[in-house]
Write a structure and sequence with these properties.
410 residues, alpha/beta, Arc Repressor Mutant, subunit A, Nucleotidyltransferase, domain 5, 3 domains, five-stranded mixed beta sheet, 14 strands, 38% helix, disordered N terminus, disordered C terminus
Length: 410
């Protein structure tokens, strides 16, 4: 797979802005450039007049900024749009080939490395299956994988890589028993600084974030975020995780684990209270398959190519739906979310069945005093964690932080 050649001139590197610092002309210009690109990214394309109205910047300032960004190859002109009166307006869009970034997803059974473009499209992808994740093996996969993908790029494209973002579960050593891994092997994660280990072997900036938070951030930036200002997000991987979006911004909380969702207490079929992750996680389906003598390894080969496992899958979907329904009630009892978003490391047809099972289970619960928001499928899909990781370098260098990204004036 090859990339479309980018423009001849590489983009400049906008200044990394420290929000605690003071303002000077350079900082203000860098902030305004990021603001313009962020607005264009969110809306897919905006004219100069639209940007001026939404940002509060003067038309002259917007014109100067957009000329500079177009000259640097970060923005490109779209097709003119003719209105009812006056001259046609020309929307400006992000240039997909202006900037690339690497994104890594580390899972309990597999890892993914992607090269993503400036608008969130995966251009290149490597998939690695492992019985359980080990730090040394994963660092080797990341470093060798980046070199392999770089070989498919021309020199000008390699110069446009902004960095690498890693989406990983925290405290991996806690789940040795669930994934059938030797505890002494998983304990190796206790003494590893993964971000530093990768940074020591690459010249790219390295970013790291919780995998559930990363997936939620990808959904906010590239999925349903434009339609729902507040949502609770459930991502079902080997273990379920998630996130919370409030006022169109990712809310990570005091310790960075807000919206982890896995520890939420729910009732199982036997009436006993367990954590949500003990029911609504793919490792549970893996165990169901093993109990019935079915090889579970196809679950990890490709998240988009699951086969229909029949009865074990039916049982898992029904149980997941019942547990998710309870988690939804708990979440919306605290925050009046406008939507519940469900996604995971599986094909769209599994996701659709899972949503249907959750809606059915909700109808069987006592909902007095609870307003259930719209339940929607995630739009980003099985690569949400890797895409969320790959977005970290882009937001660091070219776009505004999500806490201010959507606070438009118009």
């Amino acid at each position: 797979m090859s990339l479309t050649d980018g423009p001849d001139r590489g983009p400049t590197q906008p200044e990394v802005i420290d929000p605690s610092g003071g303002a000077n002309q350079t900082r203000v210009r860098a902030y305004n450039e990021r603001l313009v690109m962020s607005l264009v990214r969110r809306h897919g394309g905006l004219s100069k007049a639209d940007i001026a109205r939404r940002s509060g910047l003067s038309a002259q300032t917007v014109s100067v900024i957009m000329r500079a960004l177009e000259g640097d190859g970060l923005l490109v002109k779209g097709d003119p749009v003719r209105g009812k009166v006056g001259q046609p307006s020309t929307p400006m869009r992000l240039n997909p080939d202006a900037v690339y970034s690497f994104g890594v997803k580390i899972g309990r059974r597999s890892a993914d490395l992607v090269l993503m473009d400036f608008v969130g499209t995966i251009r290149l992808h490597l998939h690695h299956v492992h019985p359980y994740p080990l730090p040394g093996d994963l660092v080797d996969f990341i470093i060798s994988g980046m070199a392999k993908l770089e070989q498919q790029l021309i020199p000008d494209q390699r110069k446009r890589i902004a960095g690498i973002g890693i989406a990983t579960p925290f405290e991996l050593w806690n789940w040795a028993e669930e994934v059938g891994a030797p505890r002494e092997e998983m304990n190796k994660w206790r003494d590893v600084d993964l971000q530093a280990a990768v940074a020591a072997r690459t010249t790219y900036p390295v970013f790291l974030q919780n995998d559930g938070t990363s997936a939620c951030g990808a959904e906010l930036a590239f999925g349903v975020g434009a339609s729902y200002p507040d949502f609770v997000y459930f991502y079902i991987g080997s273990f379920i995780g998630g996130g919370v979006v409030l006022n169109s911004a990712l809310f990570s909380g005091r310790t960075g684990t807000a919206g982890a969702v896995g520890p939420l207490p729910v009732s199982g079929k036997d009436g006993k209270t367990v954590q949500l992750l003990k029911i609504a996680s793919v490792f549970v389906l893996e165990n169901l398959l093993r109990e019935r003598g079915v090889d579970p390894r196809p679950l990890w080969y490709s998240a988009d190519d699951w086969i229909d496992f029949g009865e074990p899958l039916d049982i898992w979907i029904e149980d997941c739906g019942a547990a998710l329904a309870q988690a939804v009630v708990s979440a919306v009892s605290i925050v009046d979310f406008s939507a519940v978003v469900i996604d995971g490391g599986f094909p769209p047809w599994v996701r659709a069945r899972l949503l249907a099972a959750t809606r059915k289970a909700l109808n069987e619960l006592d909902l007095q005093g609870v307003t259930i928001p719209e339940l929607v499928e995630g739009l980003v899909g099985s690569h949400a964690r890797a895409i969320g990781g790959a977005s970290l370098p882009l937001f660091s260098r070219y776009l505004l932080d999500t806490n201010v990204l959507f606070k438009e004036l118009g």
